[in-house]
Amino acid sequence: MRYIPGFPEMLRLAETKLTHRLDGKTRIRFIKGYDEGVQAIIHSIDREKFREELRYTPLEIEQRMMKPGFLCLLVYLEDKPIAFEYGYDESDGVYFSDSQATLIEGKGVGTTQFARDTVSLQKWLQTDQVVH
Q1: Which of 80, 86, 88, 123 pairs as cysteine with 67 (C-beta 3.0–4.6 A)?
Q2: For the chain (length 132 residues), average pLDDT per consecutive 10?
């Protein structure tokens, strides 16, 4: 059976990989539930990456953040937010990954984010370990 690192090790490995790929200090943060600052970060990245008709409004983001089981992954490069992925419980036992965006493309941010989030989410659901 293939070794799956624990949550703290997975976080460290992902941050190390992105730090090398992006040539700057990278940090990954998980947030559970509503946070006004996180809402502003998501909206800011949305505005930069998506056409207007594809963007969520601040109210739509807030509504998603208020859903049960809301979990957001933020990626920072040199303390500037560069990517997010978030989702929530759609129904009992079903997690819906709603939106993801990265300001830096072609450097592995989205791939690392998705892979880390998937494994971490599985561990989080089992242990409720979340790093802030």
Answers
A1: 88
A2: 72 86 90 94 94 93 94 93 91 82 74 58 54 44
Domain count, the chain: 1
The CATH number for 104's domain is 3.40.630.30
Give the DSSP letter of residue 38.
H
Phi, psi of 25, rounded to the nearest 5 degrees:
-65, 125
Extended strands (E) in 7-47: 26-32
Strand ranges inside 41-126, DSSP E: 71-77, 80-91, 94-102
Cα–Cα nearest to 29, from 21, 41, 20: 41
d(CA 61, CA 78): 25
Any domain includes 1: no
Pairing of strands 26-32, 71-77: antiparallel
